[in-house]
Amino acid sequence: MRTTITAWRLRRGMTLVSAASVLLLTACSAAAGGSGDGDGPAAAPNKDDKISLVVYSKFTNREYPVVSAGLNRLKAKFPNIEIKHEGSQDDDKLTQSIRGGNPPDVAISFFTDNLGAWCSNGSFVDLKPYIDRDKVDLNVIPEAVRSYTEFRGKRCAMPMLADVYGFFYNKDMFAAAGLSAPPKNTTELFDHAKRLTQLNPDGSIRVAGFLPTMPFYNNQAQIWAPNWDARWLGPDGKSNLAASAEWKEMFTFQKKLIDFYGHDRLAKFKAGLGDEYSEDHAFHRGKIAMMFDGEYRTAFLKEQAPNVKYGTASPPVSDSKPNRYGGAFTTGTIIAIPKGAKNPGAAWELIKQMSLDTDTLVELGNGLKNVPSTMAALRDPRLEVDENYRPFLTMFDGGKLLPNPTTPIGDAHLKAVNDFAERWQAGREPDLEAGLRKVDAQINDELAQKGGGR
């Protein structure tokens, strides 16, 4: 969802993962053989089997031992299985391992962006035979989460916690500006941004009430889009941005905020802000008063900026879409069996535990401050919930979450729109509809080459 995730990651620095390396697997994935790649599921290990399971993930620092502890809970059922958890493994490294015929047994990715490519080219094993054999009820997972972990009905991954992207605001700054509640719509967001913004004597920005620059921090098109009910694909599976009133309204509002601050002034201000996952994050340092971010930010604030008094809420929505309030963008960490895994039967047992076991999900949720991806874990009384974490659980349970569509082109559609946003906010795309038509054409060309979306 990241999970502590979730999309340029979308938490982990929100760096666009290269879809090209994933798509290259289409031509060579058949070279990576191994048991469990056929139609039938590989047998579960015996209790006393001695097996070493290699797990790739991108977890590091404080999160790595939390995830390792969750993985090692498998020993309660299979005491002789050794878990070799290799952190700092991004999607490109995973792709290279599969191409080279030496994949891990279990792959954990912060990103859902490449799932369509992995499912369609066979890089991840189809889990349906395992699900059917073990009579797994997928309805324990919310529909939006089920959606972003499958592609065209093919389930080649399971969720391992979820990310929900809400709204953070600085309570001290709100009080100083005479504001008592977070904004619920775009009119209020714009008004709050103006009232909370502070300038230096030379006119430069000292504090931005709300920073609208894309893509920066979690100002990503895919995170904003659900607040306008903006959809990526039309009923025909093609990109439909230029014909969408919602996308136009979203970008018009973003440009209104850009123009309020001034593009060049924003660029200078942004250049002086800290890294997204460091203690120098702008919200930690009181440089921005409001922002979109995931539930995992509560853990970063507790550790890196414990003196900041803040609140969380559902993100403000378009004035024209009041019923969207209480909804949000969702994504999450996914867990899968790569093609060619040496121990697919044991890998599946680990995946079931990490995606469905309530005890494990509660432990991970408490340690990572991500949202558990089953309803049982979400409602478990052992889940540690404070006033700033609760709104994310409420959104997750509210039935209004919207994920990205899974497509065979990786994150290419996300990159195309965020690249457009950079040009739009800088004034290099003066005609919004014409610019979006070009983005549609770019995305549809790539979809046509790879066989469409979903």
UniProtKB/TrEMBL annotation:
PROSITE patterns: PROKAR_LIPOPROTEIN (PS51257). SUPFAM superfamilies: Periplasmic binding protein-like II. GO terms for cellular component: cell envelope. The keyword Ribosomal protein does not apply. Pfam families: SBP_bac_8. Keywords: Signal, Transport. Residues 1-32 form the signal peptide. The keyword Transport applies. Gene3D superfamilies: Periplasmic binding protein-like II. Its main location: other. It is found in: Cell envelope. Belongs to the bacterial solute-binding protein 1 family. Part of a binding-protein-dependent transport system for a sugar. This is Probable sugar-binding periplasmic protein.
